[in-house]
Predict the structure of RNA polymerase sigma factor.
Amino acid sequence: MGNDGFIIREASGGGAAMRRDLESLYLQWIEDYYRDVYRWCLRYAGNEHDAADLTQETFTSAFRHMHNFRGESSPRTWLLTIATRAYLRFARKAGRSKRPPRNIKDDWDEIAHMTTGETTEERAVQSLEGEEVWGWVLDLPDRERIAITLFYGEDLPYQEIATVMDVSLQQVRNFLHRGRERLKQQHVRGMGDEDRLHR
């Protein structure tokens, strides 16, 4: 994987043998990362048909622009960057879905434990179920939602999130902070509604 950028640079200017190396590398990326990209697209698209379309668009675009991959990030990060941009174009055209994807609880239990600390709000957020939190995540502004998803759903470190989102590290920290705060506020509002129901 660390040599991918070198292989691509060499193959871009080479003959038929080098192009075969490039095609071989591309096929290896499909084998290695298709599932990750598809899962990422499914989380946002909310249905298998749109997720498959976005995944295909991602890999098609990656092949067309492989010469731009410099190896400064992992191929997975680069592909998720392309998938994120494909999703944002899709969302602008079609309006983003508010439906949670299938089996979201398994993938999003971790978001329920996204903060540590002693405050009541933080302990409350830790006790949430993933499906409820996912509904709130879908309601976040796009950049906060993407940062939260990359951090908690894809386990990407801040630097890779910055690369995927094409923003600074500080902006990633800000998006995550604001996203967490909005999720906490939503939970506190939900607890107030629940208290009123039990009176």
Q: What stands out?
A: The chain has two domains: 4-94, 104-197.
